[in-house]
Amino acid sequence: MKNSRIVITGIGLTAPNGNSLREYRESLLSGKSGVEEFETRFMGRVLAGVCDFDELKYQKKKEVRRGTRAGSVGIYCSNEAIADAGLSDGTWNKSRTGVYLGITEHGNVETENEIYNISQFDYNVKYWSHHHNPRTVANNPAGEVTLNMGITGPHYTMGAACAAGNIGLIQGCQMLMLDEVDMALAGGVSESIHTFGIFASFKAQNALAEHLNPEKASRPFDLERNGIVVSEGGCVFTLERLEDALARGAKIYCEVAGYSINSDATDFVLPNEQRQAECMELAIKKAGITAQDIDILSSHATSTPQGDIQEVGAIKKVFGESKKLHVNNTKSFIGHTMGAAGALELAGNIPSFEDNIIHPTINLENPDPQCSGINIIVNSPQKTDMVKYLLNNSFGMVGINSVVIVKKYEN
Q1: CA end-to-end span of the chain
Q2: Is the pTM value of this prediction over 0.85?
Q3: Is 91 within the bounds of a domain?
Q4: How far apart are CA 8 and CA 143, in angstroms?
Q5: Domain span including residue 147
Q6: Does the pLDDT of residue 139 top 70, yes or no?
Q7: How many Å apart are CA 123 and CA 106, to the nearest integer?
Q8: For residue 338, which of 263, 185, 194, 231 has the smallest C-alpha distance?
Q9: Where among 224, 247, 270 does a domain terminate?
Q10: Can you name the residues that pair with 42 across neighbouring β-strands?
Q11: Residues 235 and 263 both lie in one domain
C-alpha cells in the first residue's frame, strides 16, 4: 500500500465567511471578509474571525453543552465531509475509518472558563465541572467526532501549532498508505477565539492586529500590516486510496502529490527562512516534480511584519522570481484560523483545478518593498490557462513547518 495514490473525495468546513466549500469559495472570489469585532473576557472588543455554523445540525443541545467548541467544529466538518463524499447513507466501514485532526491548542478555553467560574465562588472547587477532564484531554476534538459518528477506527488530535491543518491531512495519508485504515477524516480545527489568553499574548508581543475597519485588519504583505487576526474554524477532508474511490464511483477533487514536515530548531516564535525553503523543496522532491511545475502557492503569511518577509524570502529561494507561480493568501479574508489554517487555506484553492481561477490576496493596498519579487495575486481573482499543481504552506510556533502539494486528478 506504500505507493498508493491518495485522493480527496469530500470537503467539510466552517470558516468565518462560509459554512460550505461553495459559500467559502464565493466569498474568496468576491472579496468578502469574515473578520468582525468580538467581545472577549478582560480585553473587551477585539478583532476576530467568527464562525456561525449550525451546531445543532449534527448534535443535540446536551451534547454541545457537555463537549467543546473545537469538538463541535470537528463534528460539523466531519459530517459535512462524509456527506460531500456521497457517504451519508452510512455505506462505509467505521471500523476502518480514522480521524486525524490538527489543532494549535486545546483545553485553554475550558480551563479559563472553569477558573473564572470558581473565582465567582471564592475558588470553591465544588463548582468545578466534572466534564473538565474529558473536555481538556489532548485527543478530545477527534474523540468527540468518533463518539458523534460511531467511528471505531483510530483517532487522535495532533498538536502542531499553526502547521496543524496540513499535518492532520498528512497523517491521514500516511495511515492510508500503511493500510491501517481504508478512509480518513483529516484536517484541522480551531476554537482559539474563545480563550482571552491568546489575544492577550499576541497583544503583549505587539502582534495583535488593529484597524478601524475590521475587514481590513488582516493584510499580509502590506506595509501597514500590524499583526494577527485570531480566528476560529475547521476543515476536514475525506481521504481515500484512489482504487477505493474509483470502485465506488466517487467524485475526486484532487490527488495528494507530496508533503513535508520539518523543524526550524532556532527560536520559539521567529520563523526560519532557510528551514521553510527546505520544507518546500522536500515536498516538491517527494511529489516528483520541479518548482517550475507549481501553479499556485497558498502562502502562510499571517500579517506580522517579520513573518511575511521571512516567507517571501523562502519562496524566492525555491522559486526565484518566477512569473508562472501565482501566490495568494487566504488569511487576508478570514484571519488566522490557527490549527485549521492549513486545511482551510488548501480547501479554498482546490476549486481552481476546475475553474482555473486564482483567488486573490485582499487588503494589499501598499505593498511592502521587502515582500516584493513574487507574483502575488492582488485584490481581484485572476484567470489562468490551467492549474495542475497547488502548494500549500503552513508554519507554526516553536519552529514547525509543513507543506502539502496537491494536483489535478488525471487518470
Answers
A1: 18
A2: yes
A3: yes
A4: 22
A5: 6-247
A6: yes
A7: 23
A8: 231
A9: 247
A10: none
A11: no
Q: Which three cell numbers stand for residue 207?
A: 502582534
Phi, psi of 135 (to 5 degrees): -70, -30
Q: Is the pLDDT of residue 163 over 70?
A: yes
pLDDT at site 1: 59
Q: Give me the CATH number covering residue 17.
A: 3.40.47.10
223-245 average pLDDT score = 98
Beta carbons of 118 and 45 less than 8 angstroms apart: no
Alpha-carbon Rg for the chain, nearest whole angstrom, is 20
Rounded Cα–Cα distance for residues 324 and 312 (Å): 16
157 CA to centre of own chain: 14
Residues 28 and 31: their CA atoms lie apart, in Å, by 5
Tens of pLDDT, residues 285-341: 999 999 999 999 999 999 999 999 999 999 999 999 888 999 999 999 999 999 999
Model pLDDT for residues 263-290, shown as the tens digit of each residue: 999 999 999 999 999 999 999 999 999 9
What is the rounded CA–CA span in Å between residue 297 and residue 352?
12
Residue with cell 458523534: 148
Of the candidates 13, 49, 57, the residue with the CA atom closest to the CA atom of residue 32: 49
The HSE-up count of residue 39 (CA atoms within 13 Å, CB side) is: 0
Grid cell digits, residue 266: 532556532
> What are 357-385's pLDDT values in tens digits?
999 999 999 999 999 999 999 999 999 99
DSSP β-ladder status, 382-383 and 357-358: antiparallel
- Cα gap 30→15, rounded to integer Å: 15
Residues 133 and 15 in one domain: yes
Helix (H/G/I), strand (E/B), else coil: 252:
coil
Task: Give the separation between CA 161 and CA 192, rounded to whole angstroms.
Answer: 11
HSE value, Cβ hemisphere, 13 Å, CA-based, for 379: 7
